[in-house]
Design a protein that fits this description.
four-stranded parallel β-sheet; about 200 residues; alpha/beta; 2 domains; 8 helices; Rossmann fold
Length: about 200
């Protein structure tokens, strides 16, 4: 049985390295389990190319949108099981907090920057994360989207910080970084992300 870490795919080398770094961290936690990376789009190898019989496929996505519900399962076919996405798991909210603190956050209100989706369910997941983050930080948290409305720029006010609800660096995070001096990095290879991937695998 192998663990397939299914990622979106990016042309940005830093984004691809983030996914590979997560895979290395998971291998360290599960030394007896083969761990491979497959991409749903843009890059190779594809999810279909690396999925074997009885594979457990963990989507490295922060929302249960089209790729997780349709694209990845279609590539897997009947050869394995697909777990739920990583988000909106509450443990990842702590990662957003950690990235904000690393960026110099000192108690300002926050805009949670997400990629964006037309799907009502995915947007509801982001709002849930924003609510949990607000409770954790004790400040107002609004949601802004890179692609979609309201945009990050529309939601940021002077003196606000921006938290990143993005998994890896790339063009989206570069766009987010334009919106203030305090912008949290993507979740990336934070230990809590690797721990969550392991839990998804073990509970499948």
């Amino acid at each position: 049985m192998r663990l397939v870490l299914a990622a979106h795919g990016t042309r940005d080398p830093a984004g691809a390295e983030t996914v590979e770094s997560l895979a290395r961290a998971v291998r360290h936690r599960l030394p007896e389990v083969p761990v491979v990376v497959g991409y749903a789009d843009v890059r190779r190898p594809t999810v279909a190319e690396v999925t074997e019989e009885r594979s457990i496929v963990v989507p490295a996505f922060l929302g249960n949108g089209y790729h997780v519900r349709v694209d990845v399962p279609a590539q897997v076919g009947g050869r394995g099981r697909v777990t739920s996405a990583l988000g909106p798991d509450p443990d990842l909210v702590g990662v957003v907090r950690d990235r904000l603190v690393e960026a110099g956050w000192t108690g300002e209100p926050v805009v949670l920057a997400a990629a964006g989706s037309r799907e009502v369910g995915v947007r509801a997941e982001v709002e849930k994360v924003a609510g949990l983050l607000g409770e954790m930080l004790g400040v107002q948290v609004r949601v802004g989207y890179v692609m979609g409305r309201p945009t990050v720029g529309e939601m940021v006010e002077k003196g606000w910080a921006v938290g990143s609800w993005l998994l890896a660096p790339g063009v989206f995070h570069r766009m987010v970084s334009e919106h203030g001096p305090v912008v949290g990095a993507p979740l990336g290879n934070h230990p809590a992300v690797a721990d969550l991937i392991v839990r998804r695998f073990l509970s499948a």
